[in-house]
């Protein structure tokens, strides 16, 4: 049996895949479940999982996660007919997939499901549905804020809802409001205000890592919007092409009057360097973010590369 699950909405695609696996594995408690990625895949391993028969009759549920665009993609495509007729269950999970491959695989798949990013008009409905499924009561302003500021980033919304479901009401409010206040100040290039907001959030219990990912998302959004703008698209076309909420596009376009593409790319590089070095224990994440925020102003001449190369300092 073969399933094809794909689409740019990776949250809903993966949730659907998880539901399929849990449902099928739940029917047979002895079934073996495998998740194969580019990191643990090999042709011999795929051959064993697709063609091999368990000596004790044990069934398998196998998820091939992001393999079609790699070196094993051709082998996997050639095996779809065999997987379709197998008593075992196979799920091909991809984010981006060419239409010709979808057509080729779908001919043999028992189920094909595409998950496109939700349009802005459906985000609030999704938030309400997710909250209800987790027995969470959200205020109207919380629903609106999640829908408008997180846009189609369902992973982040789900994380916020998870905090709420665990009873962390105060933490949920901090997660929702403070980091995005910082992201707005960051995009507005208000260096000192952003610096003080960052440390105010730290003092109130928001982690540096939570705020890092908000700034990462903000920078990624700005890079996307500036690319469309430089391609000559108008505001309406940018909203259509990017899939971003109109409010997010509007704020991003306003930010581009204060930050040019090269500056945004430099910030993106600095954030990547900071994250890498913080994971290696060479730089403190909070200290690194402090210096990035202080360096937002055009008048500041602080050398971030030199800072990271020196391993950062404590503040």
Any low-confidence stretches, pLDDT <50, length ≥5?
Answer: 299-315
Q: What share of residues are in beta strands?
A: 5-15%
Question: What's the pLDDT, averaged over the residues?
Answer: 82
CATH architecture verdict of the largest domain: Up-down Bundle
In total, the number of strands is 5
Sheet bearing the most strands, described?
A: 5 strands, parallel
Count, helices: 16
Structural class: alpha/beta
What does this structure look like?
The protein is of the alpha/beta class and 315 residues long. It folds into 2 domains: 2-114, P-loop containing nucleotide triphosphate hydrolases (Rossmann fold); 168-309, Zinc Finger, Delta Prime, domain 3 (Up-down Bundle), CATH 1.20.272.10. Helices cover 60% and strands 8% of the residues. A 5-stranded parallel β-sheet has the order 2-3-4-1-5, sandwiched between helices. The longest helix is centred in the last third of the chain and has 23 residues, at 208-230.
Q: What is the structure about, briefly put?
A:
The protein has 16 helices and five strands.
């Amino acid at each position: 049996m073969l399933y094809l699950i794909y689409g740019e909405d990776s949250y809903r695609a993966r949730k659907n895949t998880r539901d399929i696996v849990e449902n099928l594995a739940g029917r047979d408690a002895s079934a073996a479940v495998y998740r194969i990625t580019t990191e643990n895949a090999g042709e011999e391993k795929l051959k064993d999982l697709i063609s091999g028969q368990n000596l004790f009759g044990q069934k398998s549920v196998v998820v091939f996660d992001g393999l079609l665009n790699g070196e094993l993609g051709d082998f996997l495509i050639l095996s779809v007919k065999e997987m379709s007729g197998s008593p075992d269950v196979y799920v091909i999970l991809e984010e981006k997939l060419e239409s010709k491959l979808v057509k080729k695989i779908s001919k043999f798949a028992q189920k094909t499901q595409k998950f496109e990013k939700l349009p802005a008009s459906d985000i609030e409905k999704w938030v309400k549905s997710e909250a209800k499924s987790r027995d969470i009561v959200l205020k109207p302003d919380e629903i609106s804020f999640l829908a408008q500021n997180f846009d189609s980033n369902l992973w982040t919304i789900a994380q916020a809802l998870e905090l709420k479901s665990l009873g962390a009401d105060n933490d949920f409010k901090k997660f929702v409001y403070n980091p995005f206040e910082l992201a707005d100040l960051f995009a507005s290039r208000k260096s000192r205000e952003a610096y003080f907001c960052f440390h105010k959030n730290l003092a109130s219990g928001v982690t540096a890592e939570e705020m890092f990912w908000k700034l990462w998302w903000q920078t990624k959004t700005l890079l996307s919007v500036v690319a469309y703008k430089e391609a000559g698209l108008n505001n309406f076309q940018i909203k259509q092409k990017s899939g971003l909420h109109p409010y997010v596009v509007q704020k991003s376009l306003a930010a581009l009057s204060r930050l040019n593409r090269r500056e945004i790319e430099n910030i993106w590089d600095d954030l990547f360097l900071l994250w890498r070095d913080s994971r290696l224990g060479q730089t403190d994440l909070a200290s690194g973010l402090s210096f990035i925020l202080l360096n937002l102003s055009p008048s500041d001449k602080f050398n971030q590369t030199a800072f990271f190369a020196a391993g950062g300092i404590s503040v």
